[in-house]
Amino acid sequence: MAADTYEAKRAGSGMAAKGRVTIREVAERAGVSVATVSRVLSGNYPVPPATRTRVLRAARALDYVANAHARALVGGGRKMVAVVLRQVTSPFYAQVAEGVEAEAAGRGWLCLVGTTGGDPERELEFVQLMREEGARLVILVGGVVEDDAYRERVTHYAQALDAAGARLVLCGRPAPGPDIPALVVEFDNEAGAHAITGHLLSAGHRRIVFLGGLPGNTALDARVAGYRAALAQHGLPPEAEHVVDCGLGRAAGHRAMAELLRDGAGFTAVFAGDDMVAAGALRAIAEAGLRVPDDISVVGYNDIPLAEDFNPPLTTVRTPAEELGRAAVRIALRDPEHAAGAHHLLGTHIVVRDSVAAPRGH
Amino acid sequence: MAADTYEAKRAGSGMAAKGRVTIREVAERAGVSVATVSRVLSGNYPVPPATRTRVLRAARALDYVANAHARALVGGGRKMVAVVLRQVTSPFYAQVAEGVEAEAAGRGWLCLVGTTGGDPERELEFVQLMREEGARLVILVGGVVEDDAYRERVTHYAQALDAAGARLVLCGRPAPGPDIPALVVEFDNEAGAHAITGHLLSAGHRRIVFLGGLPGNTALDARVAGYRAALAQHGLPPEAEHVVDCGLGRAAGHRAMAELLRDGAGFTAVFAGDDMVAAGALRAIAEAGLRVPDDISVVGYNDIPLAEDFNPPLTTVRTPAEELGRAAVRIALRDPEHAAGAHHLLGTHIVVRDSVAAPRGH
DNA sequence: CTGAAAGCGCTAACAC
DNA sequence: GTGTTAGCGCTTTCAG
């Protein structure tokens, strides 16, 4: 027994290394060399059943698990994908994460979820961390304000990851420039917004406010663009446009809607930037003693799982979030060489429920 | 240059190892030894400003990031905590994960989220994985059916993790036995259920059905026990109890409620096992043309973020999920030695909204 | 068929 | 101050 070695290690690194079983101990117990143990456990080399059994028995008896770090060091590291989101408690992001996780797990990859709270600094730290850990695939999710800082930062991620043989996927955010080794997968926000605005227009609404703009944010800007395009296409004058830049989140939606109601702006419908904003708006409308859709129609965006349980059930745009996550890893892994620089657009569709009616006196 | 080495490596392991910068290259560029580079980067050893700067400059120029695996191997691995949940798309679990993540990130720990879909097999695989990766803290979240298989499995986790100097935290699930090196942190489900049942009782309800039992599941059993205790305490006969074992989830709640309504059981209130079940029940009640709380009162459990947006806003039991996650890591890390075997109970409280009224003709 | 030995990239004694 | 060196636990030639 190399007891002294273990004692020394134990003393040296605190309790962290206390008795983790190594391949050497398994080898000793099985009466073979470490090379043989490695071979049977890796299973990629023919080993006679007899020795094989002895080794397996020893490993089981000692409850041995290989040290992933040592393995990674020598080359055969575990394949790992990292998803970076603003927060997991947002239903939309959670679904994306679930999609990534499911697709990754299905391929035997490990999935790491990191959250940034929307802070670019934390995003950078996390990506750096993933480089250290040797993630083979990094997926950045969610719209961003696209400025020079963003472009520079992401260009750096892309090149660094690429140099290390890893891939970068941008979900719902733009490539920082041409010829950047990053894959982008996103929804056609403009088309979705155009469609749902059209739905409101068809119901007879002419005074529609867009609640939840976030100037500079690519996802919201696209939604606003779709809203504007639909209005214009219906022949409405530019004055008909009314976008409230209150940003996202239930609280923001609630506050902005309450203000709007207080000011008595003359509108008959609201297009919320996403379903959480819609939740806040719905609440504010109820608190003002008004009713949806009788007094005001409301539509959202994303079709989060509980949108059906709002009061009333929300008409919204379905963005298959889980599929977005799955697609991100599937595409990135399918054809790595070709994937770099590619741009995939996922379709969306309207889900009609009970939050839209014809405007009063129509 | 050791170009041949890199060529060989590149050829050997595909593109994965393509050109990752090592500490040696930084050392060469800075004209110092690897030890010096290590020293300045670790920052735990005095190094003259002049060399320090040279090294830092070289590292930056090469965009060097240390290999976390090599670091972990030699002892100073990154501290990592793993949370294992059924799914991230459940608002409750997502909040717990967020709490763990926040508390971990705040201490400079890396947080890994794994999902099992409720499959013990996948849970085991994931824990094994975490052992391989050297996680120092593993947090298992969510109620389980507590059978021999469970006890054996978790006892194994606890002992294996403990032997490797890691800790196991059980959130909302019981310790598999006495003297097991695991910390348990959970809500007082029985008290919460007792309280909310009492709320219904106080409103005048006498025929209350518990929707969402899951026999054997520790969390639900405790809730059922609280419900029964409250009923008994109010002097109601055992026949007043009515628990429907439909399990959790919106779909289950919807289906079970629809059936109940169809069978015309005489009840005036329903206590849903959790808020998702309540969502389904609310929907079924609405589809049956009945109204909450006028015709039937409904209460839930957990107070998920959108419970306020249900129709009507749901009266429920608030279980501070994020705090549960934070507490799990805080307690586990605060006093590691003492934490093993400890049992922490977190309090809950009722949140009154609009889904409860006095029963008809009361 | 199996063992010995050479590292993977890094840190931490231990020299000088 | 800084370089040299010995491993960490594992996989993988290369011999036998």
Descriptive report:
Chains A, B: This is LacI family DNA-binding transcriptional regulator. Chains A, B: Keywords: DNA-binding, Transcription, Transcription regulation. 2 copies of one chain form a homodimer. Chain A is an alpha/beta fold. The first copy, chain A, is 47% helix and 14% strand. Chain A has helices at residues 3-12, 23-30, 34-42, 49-62, 68-76, 91-106, 120-133, 148-163, 189-202, 218-233, 250-263, 275-287, 321-334, 336-339; strands at residues 80-85, 110-115, 137-141, 167-171, 183-187, 208-211, 243-244, 269-272, 297-299, 316-318, 343-346, 349-351. Chain A has a 6-stranded parallel β-sheet with strand order 2-1-3-4-5-11, sandwiched between helices. A 4-stranded parallel β-sheet of chain A has the order 7-6-8-9, sandwiched between helices. In chain A, strand 6, helix 10 (218-233) and strand 7 (243-244) form a beta-alpha-beta unit. In chain A, helix 2 (23-30) packs across helix 3 and helix 7 (120-133) runs parallel beside helix 8. The first copy, chain A, is elongated and about 90 Å long. The N and C termini of chain A lie far apart (89 Å). Chains A and B meet through helix 5, helix 6, strand 2, helix 7 and helix 8 of A and helix 5, helix 6, strand 2, helix 7 and helix 8 of B. The first copy, chain A, binds a DNA duplex (16 and 16 nucleotides) through helix 3 and helix 5.
